[in-house]
Amino acid sequence: MNEHTTDTTARVAIVTGIGAAIAEPLHEATEEWTREIVTVELLGVLTVARHVLPHLRAAGAAGRRASLVVVSSDSVKAGSFGDAVSSAARAGVLGMVRSVARENAVVAMTVNAGCPGPTDTAMYRELADAQGLTGKVFSGMTRGIPARRLCTPEEVAATIHFLLSPETAYITGQAISVSGGLTM
Fold first, then answer.
1. What is the pLDDT of residues 158-173, one digit of tens each?
2. What is the layout of strands, in order, in the sheet containing 9-15?
3. How far apart are CA 123 and CA 74, in angstroms?
4. For a tag site, which of 90, 101, 127, 170 has the least CB within 10 Å?
5. What is the DSSP string of 15-64?
6. CA angle centred on 88, ends 83 and 91, rounded to 5°
């Protein structure tokens, strides 16, 4: 981060997620897979946050608006089939968000999380196909969402953009669902 900038903000978004479409009940999860998920989805986020926090704290202390937004998942609030390990890791991330928000509110820094629900991505469709959730069953899943459709990646991005905006200077420690009403 350039300390000589005239910009009055310092913003960082950490996007988390595992790069494999795997869903297994906890009793079937291998030790190796469990460690991979926790390493990527919890330890990876903690590591990145630990490295950017000194820069954000310095910006906030210097009177510049500092924001950290972590993209998590709404599954941490609702749970979902085959998602116990990931939900546990992401719950740890939300704990970090809340703690870091409290620790840094005094230096004009906000820390929040965007929590997308089922989102229409290639990985989500691969996972649905692997579980046989195509056609009629897949459309039944979307009927369980009050908005009756999947979230779009653009809607997730718009929420993150909002949380990074200057207008949200008094919103901190929050986990904002982007789920069409699936969780409230």
1. 999 999 988 999 999 9
2. 9-15, 65-71, 109-116, 175-178
3. 16
4. 170
5. E---SS-----GGG--HHHHHHHHIIIIIHHHHHHHHHHHHHHHHHHTT-
6. 120
